[in-house]
């Protein structure tokens, strides 16, 4: 699997003039720099007291979870650099590492959500842990779907790189959730949509049209995010019963 571009030859530097050309050449690379900035900005607010120097030590799986998901962000940046420098052969080679990492992240994310749900309920006595379980489950389902499609359509570079881009954007909701205002007002699931929207703007500037990945994925994600948020905040009885069985 490759993760940002694929086999199609890069446009020559002179393909577009001015800002349009810069956007065409540097958009995905620029986003690969923005992603870790968001992660650091968000998690720096809570990681010390919630992981490194927690009053109650967190389960070991949380460390593996953090390492794997941070590794994906670094990997996206690395692959973007390879594309920017036209090292397509190495981009493809390391892409299979990305496929393995992505495949491992889904069960790891689900397992971490279950373990931390039990921890929050039993050790920290936090209310609403059962209802909140819908959020990481949604995240992993959406991420798994997008990455799977990206692997299957890896030969279609324009689809592939947008699918990986959207999948990576979705992972950032956890970083956005570290900002109290965003979390308290239920915005964190929707914040990645703003980043995906930048991809839409990029397409309009460069291609004069919106790629079908965005046309299909963005509305679907917004609807699913809304449903997940409603189920969580309303503590829907049917979901609480399911989550209680999972966490029991």
Quick summary of this structure?
This protein has helices at 19-43, 47-52, 61-84, 88-122, 129-132, 134-152, 157-171, 173-176, 180-184, 191-206, 212-234, 237-247. With 248 residues, the chain is an all-alpha fold.
Topology, please?
Layout lengths: L18 H25 L3 H6 L8 H24 L3 H35 L6 H4 L1 H19 L4 H15 L1 H4 L3 H5 L6 H16 L5 H23 L2 H11 L1
Helix pairs in contact: 1-3, 1-10, 3-4, 4-6, 6-7, 6-11, 7-10, 7-11, 10-11
Structural class by SSE content? mainly alpha
- What is the overall number of helices? 12
What would the principal axes of the Cα set say about the shape? globular
Mean pLDDT: 91
Percent of residues in helices: over 70%
Low-confidence stretches: 1-15
Distance between the termini: 37 Å
> Cα-atom Rg, whole angstroms?
19 Å
Q: Summarize the main sheet.
A: none
């Amino acid at each position: 699997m490759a993760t940002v571009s694929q086999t199609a030859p890069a446009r020559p530097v002179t393909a577009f003039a001015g800002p349009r050309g810069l956007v065409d050449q540097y958009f995905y690379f620029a986003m690969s720099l923005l992603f870790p900035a968001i992660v650091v900005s968000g998690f720096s607010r809570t990681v010390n007291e919630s992981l490194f120097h927690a009053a109650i030590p967190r389960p070991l799986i949380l460390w593996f979870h953090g390492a794997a998901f941070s590794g994906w962000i670094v990997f996206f940046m690395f692959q973007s650099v390879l594309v920017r420098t036209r090292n397509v052969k190495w981009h493809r080679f390391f892409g299979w590492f990305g496929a393995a990492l992505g495949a491992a992240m889904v069960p790891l994310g689900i397992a971490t959500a279950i373990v931390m749900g039990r921890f929050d309920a039993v050790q920290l006595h936090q209310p609403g842990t059962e209802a909140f379980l819908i959020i990481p489950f949604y995240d992993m389902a959406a991420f798994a779907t997008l990455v799977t499609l990206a692997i299957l359509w890896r030969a279609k570079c324009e689809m592939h790189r947008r699918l990986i881009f959207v999948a990576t954007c979705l992972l950032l909701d956890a970083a956005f959730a570290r900002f109290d205002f965003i979390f308290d007002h239920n915005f964190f699931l929707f914040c990645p949509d703003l980043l995906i929207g930048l991809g839409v703007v990029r397409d309009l500037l460069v291609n004069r049209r919106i790629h079908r990945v965005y046309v299909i994925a963005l509305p679907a994600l917004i609807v699913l995010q809304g449903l997940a948020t409603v189920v969580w905040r309303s503590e829907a009885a049917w979901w609480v019963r399911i989550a209680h069985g999972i966490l029991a």
